[in-house]
Amino acid sequence: MDIIFRPIHELSEALRSGDISSVELTEAFLRRIKDVDGRIHAYITVMEDDALRMAEKADERLRKKDAISPLTGIPVSLKDIFCTVNTKTTCASRILEDFVPPYDATVVRRLKDAGAVILGKTNMDEFAMGSSTENSAFFTTLNPWDLGRVPGGSSGGSASAVCACECTASIGTDTGGSIRQPASFCGVVGLKPTYGRVSRYGMVAFASSLDQAGPITRNVTDSAIVLSVIAGHDPKDATSIDAPVPDYTSFLKKDIKGLRIGIPMEYFIEGMDREVEEYVRKAVDLLKESGGEVVDVSLPHTEYAISVYYLVATAEASSNLARYDGVKYGLRVKGRGDLIDMYKETRDRGFGSEVKRRIMLGTYSLSAGYYDAYYRKASQVRTLIRRDFEEAFRRCDVIVTPTSPTPPFRVGERVEDPLTMYLSDVFTISCNLAGIPGISIPCGFTRDGLPVGLQILGRPLDEGTILRVAYTYEQATEWHRRYPDLGERPS
Ligand code: GLN
Predict the structure, then answer these.
(1) What phi, psi does 271 have (nearest 5°)?
(2) Which of 129, 186, 314, 458 could form a disulfide with 466 if both were Cys (CB 3.0 to 4.6 A apart)?
(3) Contact 151, 134 (CB under 8 A)
(4) Over the stretch 146-183, which tens digit does the pLDDT of each residue have?
(5) How far is the CA of 1 from the centre of ligand 1 (A)?
(6) Contact between 405 and 272 (Cβ < 8 Å)
(7) Which CATH architecture does the domain made up of 3-258+409-481 adopt?
(8) Residue of 91, 155, 178, 192 to test ligand 1 pocket, by largest number of atoms within 8 Å of CB
(9) Active-site hit among 77, 79, 199, 318
(10) Is 356 noted as a catalytic residue in this protein?
(11) Which helix (H) or strand (E) holds 46?
(12) 154 alpha carbon – ligand 1 mean position (Å)
């Protein structure tokens, strides 16, 4: 079997025993990117020379048996939202098109310290605003299962790169579903950790009270491995949680006997795709057969989640994006007049239309006279949504839902209709508002061959339990062994 298809835990063994070298492995992935990325368009930047240099260093560590981690020598990619020293970090925006950060994000630092090899930076919706990567200022990434469809977003480049085996794993970010929804659309595993579990330092800010980084991988074990490396307290991020990081792979050994699986009635709604519902119900049955105890729960404020999110997220975005003024860094368009003119021209040319829409919405809801009616109200309802989960988690240990109400949609199908696009986040958004962890794993393929995702939500800092449930399901199914046909498949 070609090495690019193998899971991280196997590759890590092979690297340690000297069966393969990190340089060989990295070259294999760089070749794969050359072979398929012309069709998928997952990468904005491929860091060929840097990757090979990191691989050489990793090989040296492996030879000397010096501080080896499960990621030493393993090639991964990063959503282009993470600052990388000396490598462009564009956030898929014209305004940061030529921005080269002077420092690494903490997530990047941790990966490098663990000896991981960074292959490149992946495409996304501009500033992580979107659900399809169609809002990238550069190009749209395509779904490896069907090149006429979107890979989801905003971490669509990461999910499709993992799916097409253009890296072993990728780090995405999730503000309202941007790790889980693309993972679901691409048939891979995406984990959004508890808010504060992973440092946001050096991650370009969209909505700071919601943003969280996490792994996108091809299986649950790899998700646990990557999370163990990137999680942890960081003094440079005041909202990062100071709690010990367990070895998340240790949770995979336990079964789920007696574990209470909550099914929220508000998540099985009118208008949901039939095949999606079928597969999710089958998955719940399987968890029951594996020893789980299924209980009905209610999250009564779910219907307000989208409205709350699009008020809170846009308000925070309008404030965060005020820094792009052409003065300190990024694009500067001089304009014909004074300083104000320069600001205007820079922001007009630098931002795409979805980003502008969000800035305007956010500015509106924060302005005097509207603040109480919109932003404050939304913050209050957000508290109710969080309490819904606290209440539900008294009756169950995890909550299981579909990740997305539909399978991946066609390129162009929803771009003209932002409201429909926003509605695709209906199942993923509450988790961010409540700050709890959630994972999406593949749980079926439609008759058209499109992946369906299962979402498992857990209590704050209980990533271990959602990984354990995900792993139990994965062990009993074969979905994670399917690969899209890109000319070469594992033998
Ligand atoms: N699709 C949602 C949005 O457009 C979520 C994005 C995200 O999680 N970054 O805001």
Answers:
(1) 85, -5
(2) 458
(3) no
(4) 999 999 999 999 999 999 999 999 999 999 999 999 99
(5) 37
(6) yes
(7) Alpha-Beta Complex (3.90)
(8) 178
(9) 79
(10) no
(11) strand 43-46
(12) 6
154 is annotated as an active-site residue: yes
Cβ-contact 429, 410 below 8 angstroms: no
For residue 12, give both structure tokens: 């890590």
- Total Cβ atoms within 10 A of residue 351: 22
- Is the CB of 80 within 6 Å of ligand 1? no
For 260-292, write each residue's pLDDT tens digit.
999 999 998 777 899 999 999 999 999 999 999
- Quote the pTM value: 0.98
- Annotated catalytic, 79? yes
Where are the domains positioned within the chain?
A: 3-258+409-481, 303-381
| Residue closest by Cα to atom 10 of ligand 1 | 129
Strands (E), 368-413: 398-402
- Half-sphere exposure of 30 toward its Cβ, with a 13 Å CA cutoff? 18
Per the CB < 8 A criterion, the answer to whether 122 and 154 are in contact is no
Whether residue 370 contacts residue 364, with contact meaning beta carbons closer than 8 Å, is answered with yes
Distances in Å between the Cα of 91 and the Cα atoms of 73, 157, 159 are 26, 12, 16
Q: For ligand 1, say whether the CB of 203 is within 6 Å of any of its atoms.
A: no
